[in-house]
Amino acid sequence: MSRRIFIAGNWKMNLTLSSSLELAGGLKEQLNGTNDVEIAVCPPSIYVQQVAALLKDTNIGVGAQNVYHKDKGAFTGEISVGMLIDAGVKYVILGHSERRHILHEKNEDVNLKILAALSSSLIPIVCVGELLEEREAEATYKVVGEQIEGSFANVSAEDMKKCVIAYEPVWAIGTGKVATPDQAEEVHVFIRNLIEKKYGKDIADSVRIQYGGSVNDENAKEILAKPNVDGALVGGASLKVTQFVKIVKSA
Ligand code: PGA
Asked: Which of 108, 110, 117, 246 could serve as 217's disulfide partner, Cβ 3.0–4.6 Å?
């Protein structure tokens, strides 16, 4: 079993076109050739095409932060899988807690998006995670279990292998309150066991599970050292070249 560490930056709704290109250019300069770690950045959709052009032929992939599940048609404001691929996108973050909680996406919506991405070459990075009150009510496993079950409904074993999961406890996102390495490891093991029950050991062993929530250049190393933590989905700290480079290097 060897899972390649995968560090992805989620830029969320930040930056301008010029600061996006500056950030991507800085990462290209410092990370090109770092081939033992898989690396991606996920700019706002309006910038993905230009960022992807700048990072073309480098080892830094580009992801989107969302997609719509239909191919085309009267869906004002939405973007399809084909459009993302056309723009040079390789990954798509799905079911991020901000989309689940602010934009009311349900597991069923996330599921349709995963199936649409998998019907193409896009690699889904599927986020799951509990709210603080759910953790305090000892409902973490129940919530995360339901998110995994619902989000991955009807995903075949072959397709499951291509998926990346990001465990992002909502109380740790953007709060500076990072989960302890043991807290992260515990939930990652729980998720891996669920995948094993559904898809068998080989697939469970091959699926990468990133941790996300206040990861920075100081805490990354300790979290990434856990055997079931296979990378990180980084928000705030992915907006600074030096910070993101340090996180990648610590992997
Ligand atoms: P954060 O965000 O690193 O700023 O906590 C992580 C995420 O939302 O993916």
From this structure: 246
Ligand 1: does its nearest atom lie under 6 Å from the Cβ of 231? no
- Number of compact structural domains in the chain: 1
Q: Model-level pTM?
A: 0.97
What SS3 state is found at 154?
Answer: coil
Atom of ligand 1 nearest to the CA of 175: 5
- How many helices, marked H, and strands, marked E, lie in the chain? 12, 8
How do residues 68-100 score in pLDDT, each as one tens digit?
Answer: 999 999 999 999 999 999 999 999 999 999 999
At 96-150, the pLDDT tens digits run 999 999 999 999 999 999 999 999 999 999 999 999 999 999 999 999 999 999 9
Q: Which residue minimizes the CA distance to atom 7 of ligand 1?
A: 235
Rounded CA separation 187/228 (Å)? 9
How far apart are the C-alpha atoms of 155 and 6, rounded to whole Å?
A: 22
Q: Is residue 1 part of a domain?
A: no
Q: Which of 41, 91, 168 to mutate to test the pocket of ligand 1 (most atoms within 8 A of CB)?
A: 168
